[in-house]
């Protein structure tokens, strides 16, 4: 029930809501043209081995160079793409571009896995299979070099369909990672049914490592679980050497975070 505080509260509320939805509509209209106008671009963040810290892979992260608003982060427009049906086109562009870059690195003799994020809506659409196979075919990237990151919550939306989609993807030879693990509501009994290669420990558990001993316990439990299910672990959001030390001692396999490198243009990566 809406509270009419002093008479003007509701009107103010409506006005700001209208402004917000007008802004959304405008952004959605712009997003319709973003791909064809080459306004999207990718940055890559290294994924390093816990032992030795050499770069084993990169995660592709999309950005939008908006003609008026400047650089927009994916949190500003991926949800919009999901809701408006534009995610198919945006997602296909990201996959194609990341696979093309991955192939370039392979041609330079670099052995890097390239991770690409798949949104909840994208993951629920059967045409994802076609999109992935086209990206692999057009680029010539080896399927085993491609990792698809799917958030825990999109996997748990509809577990039956998720199992089917994951099996189909695995049949193509690509690897699958659960992104933001620990923030959704996975039932552990589902986890064992899903053909997953990698668990990415959400950065909310990494942030207070060293300070909050409960987070250490959680991270240890996730790593032990992954190990016993035959999955490897990547810790996200590693910002300090102290966090890396705790994670290494807990047996985490790979690290990703500002402590090692910020996301940057492909040409700027030191590989
Ligand atoms: P994510 O997949 O969990 O990606 C990790 C996010 O954490 C990235 O934010 C990255 O820049 C940020 N990050 C990396 N290291 C650190 C660190 O040490 N500390 C902190 N605080 N943050 C760190 P970004 O690039 O803004 O992306 C946000 C989210 O947007 C991603 O989360 C992913 O869910 C989504 N996203 C990004 N690119 C794509 C894409 O191409 N397609 C789809 N569907 N989603 C994407
Ligand atoms: Mg990710
Ligand atoms: Mg994540
Ligand atoms: Mg995230």
Automatic annotation (TrEMBL):
The chain holds residues 284 to 554 of 554 of the full protein. It comes from the Bacteria. This is GGDEF domain-containing response regulator. Transmembrane segments: none annotated. Residues 24-271 form the EAL domain.
